[in-house]
Amino acid sequence: MSDVNGADVDDAIDPDETDDGPAVPWQVQLVQWVQLHFAEVEFFTDSTKIRWCPTWWEHPEAVARLKALWLAYQAIDYSEDFGAVSDWWLHHWDPHRAILFHDKGPFRNCDTEHGHLSSASDKRVLPMPATPPEEWQHGQGTLRGLE
Q1: In this predicted model, what pLDDT tens digit does every residue of 62-75 receive, in sequence order?
Q2: Could you give the C-alpha distances from 71 to 32, 34, 68, in angstroms and in order?
Q3: pTM for the whole structure
Q4: Cβ distance 4 to 72 under 8 Å?
Q5: Who's near 45: CB < 8 A, 6+ residues apart?
Q6: Spatial separation of the C-alpha atoms in residues 76 and 78, rounded to whole Å
Q7: How far apart are CA 65 and CA 59, in angstroms?
Q8: Beta-carbon contacts of residue 106 (< 8 Å; ≥ 6 apart)
Q9: 76-125 pLDDT tens trace
Q10: pLDDT at 12
Q11: How many CB atoms within 10 Å of residue 49?
Q12: Do 76 and 84 form a contact (C-beta atoms < 8 A)?
């Protein structure tokens, strides 16, 4: 990450360096940000179709998206662009929010009342094998239909 809204964030956001002593782990900072952000901007009722998991940190996709949002939000402080906050809402929060809270999103089997995976009927399937087939590991693999 070298440039966000005109700010060099490689130097600006370094979780290993603080002026106040030892660094706070990114996970702790992320949890604090998520709690504060959601307390300020999100409101759920039983009638809404929004999905959320009280243990959101158990969902790798949600953690990845929320971490991306948090890092982009931190970059606002180092930007000289007066539109950076608006840009964050439009180009970061809104697209991720739409996926995070969608009924087919990472929290599809969770709800705020019954908790994590309360209606889990689907099993997690990896999009591809974790290890390529043996022939691919030795440079002998081909693409089907293209050999």
Answers
A1: 999 999 999 999 99
A2: 13, 12, 5
A3: 0.66
A4: yes
A5: none
A6: 5
A7: 10
A8: 53, 59, 61, 62, 65, 99, 100
A9: 999 999 999 999 999 999 999 999 988 889 988 887 777 787 776 655 54
A10: 44
A11: 7
A12: yes
